[in-house]
Specification:
This protein is an alpha+beta fold and about 140 residues long. It is built from 4 helices and 2 strands.
Amino acid sequence: MEGYKTVSIPLESNKALKKEDGSPKAKRTKFRSLIGSLLYLTTTRPDIMYATCLLSRFMQSSSRVHYGATKRVLRYLDWVGSVDNMRSTLGYAFTLRSGIFSWASKKQATVTQLSVEPKYIAAAFITSQVIWLKCIF
């Protein structure tokens, strides 16, 4: 994926994906392998959960449009790891039984000097969300 532009969101927000979109079929094994890798990655990256689950719906009949959308998720992951602004991305997902009821992913507002600091900032943010959710329920 050398030479590709990075993107700030995993999917285009104004573009709906359809099962039959009229574009040529993508290579099934390559698409399935890519989706499988992204599904594995969602355990540590809840910010790509929606995009990956949406794209996994097209594993039986994937087109080049679906494959392109999947590559966009990879470009998003490249953007998140960008060293240009030196800010970390935090993400969390709260589950109740088998469903996620609250999740977020965002770049941290501050630049940290140590590799441990982003973890403390994320922990403080997530703790505040837990307290807020506890008040609701």
